[in-house]
Amino acid sequence: xxxxxxxxxAEAFAAEHAxxxxxSAERREAERRMAADPAFAALVEAWRLRLSAxxxxxxxxxxxxxxWSRIERALPANDDSRAVRLWRRATAAAxxxxxxxxxxxxxxxxxxxxxxxxPQPGQxxxxxxxxxxxxxxxxxFVAAYDPIRKALIVTSLVRPGKDPGHVHELWVIPxxxxxxxxxxxxxxxxxxxPMPPNLQPSLTxxxxxxxxxxxxxGSPKVDAPSGPIAAVGKLSEI
Amino acid sequence: xxxxxxxxxxxxALRRLYDATSGKLFGVCLRILSxxxxxxxxxxxxxxxxxxxxxxxxxxxxxxxTWASTIARNRAIDRLRARGPLAYADQVDDxxxxxxxxxxxxxxxxxxxxxxLQDCLSQLDERxxxxxxxxxxxxxxxxALSRRMDTPLGTVKxxxxxxxxxxxxxxxx
Lengths: 238, 173
Known about the structure:
The complex is a heterodimer of chains A (238) and B (173). Chain A is α+β, with helices and mostly antiparallel strands and 238 residues long. Helices cover 34% and strands 21% of the residues of chain A. Chain A contains six helices and nine strands, in the order H-H-H-H-H-H-E-E-E-E-E-E-E-E-E. Chain A has helices at residues 9-19, 24-36, 38-55, 67-74, 79-92, 94-111, and strands spanning 125-129, 141-146, 151-156, 167-173, 180-184, 190-194, 208-214, 229-234, 236-237. In chain A, the strands form two sheets. In chain A, strands 6-3-2-1-9 form a five-stranded antiparallel sheet, with no helix packed on it. In chain A, helix 1 crosses helix 3 and helix 2 (24-36) packs across helix 3. The longest helix of chain A is centred in the first third of the chain and has 18 residues, at 38-55. Chain B has 173 residues and is an all-alpha fold. Helix content of chain B is 79%, strand content 0%. Chain B is built from ten helices and no strands. Chain B has helices at 2-7, 11-33, 36-53, 64-82, 85-97, 101-106, 112-122, 126-138, 142-149, 153-172. Chain B is globular, with a radius of gyration of 17 Å. Chains A and B meet through helix 1, helix 3, helix 4 and helix 5 of A and helix 2, helix 3, helix 4, helix 6 and helix 7 of B.
């Protein structure tokens, strides 16, 4: 066994993350890298798989009989199906909701008490995007902006395949209230989107991130959503 | 498929998964936390997490059992870390004494993967086996391991890295 080659630096880091020996700062770094680098994420997954067999070494123990009913009581109405229902309603009432949705998004942005403090280097800004109708606080998308990598990491919690005729376009609405397009996010996917220099100043705490429902190819308007706002949330420090 | 039905909000499907996996996952929580009440809380949290994340389960990447036990282990370790540094240090010492448990576990191994991993682990030197096992079941960081073993962090790190490289080589043969 003495001639075993060393793991590459990336794989060693992935294995350490899967094993759980990293400090919390290093774990965050590993999570960021997983979101930005699919090859690295695959290394971590492969190590989790290898090591998970160790967990099987734990002897099974029957949980108490009432645990299932505790779980059942705590189950929220299913997030996914509720998101999809909202989604359908949003697309069906497109024209009606469009004006109200944009107004809600802009109102949220203008309600912002200006921009708070500029983020410290390395500090992630997070946003949880919920339906502007306010009927539920279940997030439909989550977004995090990494000011060091200048990338926005977006996860869609919308179930794929429900509305193939439309796309979901991302917008940032900074303090001036003018939406700027950021790109697209597919249902159920996570994307790390590098942000060009002209958009970076808009991605600060207090700016809103919104998702609109658009025809394939995105909003025909250059600087505004054409479809309804399906979800909106404000960027804030962790 | 079960996970798709859970993602669609079918409670009966979650119940089926619970019946099939709760004993194993409760065992994982207990092994990490050594506390029944905390393990019950964590197990409840694990199934709520499965309920929320079922839509993101990717069968091409891992089996349901692997995916679910990774969630259970991560949640239990989060809970362990939340006990704070002092309680946590005690826990570490307790479990070090209980390390002989690894031998008893070996007889209960279920899958072929688990047996293979066990074989490969046993080819490592005693000390490396123990640090890898502690890291896995107790979520102990390099820093904590280095303090606990009174050994420089770099040394502990190279033990583990070399151990993991050998594990990978052994599992690949």
